[in-house]
Design brief:
The protein is an alpha+beta fold and 168 residues long. The chain has five helices and six strands. The strands form two sheets. Strands 2-5-1-6 form a four-stranded mixed β-sheet.
């Protein structure tokens, strides 16, 4: 009987590792990359981030899926370009909607692997500064006061142990 539980535990670990290695294909990300790390460039990045997140919060309000979110972003892409232009007063930026590269990051206690993700990326100037980023779908960008009540993460191995080993 002990061997059975060990085998079951090993299967759970393998399944958990497979789940850990999967890329989060169902998320949509947002990123604003600063021209440099100077104070002025940092202020520009924050200004652009605030303007766009405020507008996107309204635009994405009814979105309940990855596809809805991408469609809403596409429909409003020209508006986002104009907002960035108006906030900077110049056209020294690039707005890219589609598959964009993101380095590995941890956000709200969840790990996101590096790779290309569906996203809206705004690169200011040379894009050599630090960046702001968040997840648009599910809508983690807009969580007020870091309220994580509506967001629930699970660890496959913990769930497996609780479901099959501890619950007899």
């Amino acid at each position: 009987m002990k061997k059975f539980w060990i085998v079951l535990l090993m299967i759970g670990i393998i399944l958990s590792l497979n789940d850990f290695n999967k890329k989060d294909d169902d998320i949509v990300r947002f990123r604003v990359i600063s021209n440099s790390n100077s104070k002025k460039d940092y202020e520009n990045k924050i200004k652009v981030k605030k303007i766009l997140t405020k507008e996107m919060k309204k635009d994405l309000e009814g979105c309940s899926s990855h596809d809805d979110t991408m469609l809403a972003l596409k429909m409003n892409e020209d508006k986002y370009n104009k907002l960035v232009y108006n906030s900077l007063g110049n056209n020294n930026y690039k707005v890219s909607l589609g598959k964009n590269y993101f380095p590995a990051k941890e956000y709200n206690d969840k790990y996101y692997k590096s790779g290309k993700y569906d996203s809206l990326v705004v690169t200011l100037g040379k894009g050599e500064g630090k960046n702001f980023w968040c997840v648009l779908f599910p809508p983690l960008c807009f969580a007020e006061n870091n309220n994580k009540k509506d967001i629930e993460y699970h660890f496959a191995i913990k769930d497996f142990i609780e479901k099959y080993i501890l619950k007899r």
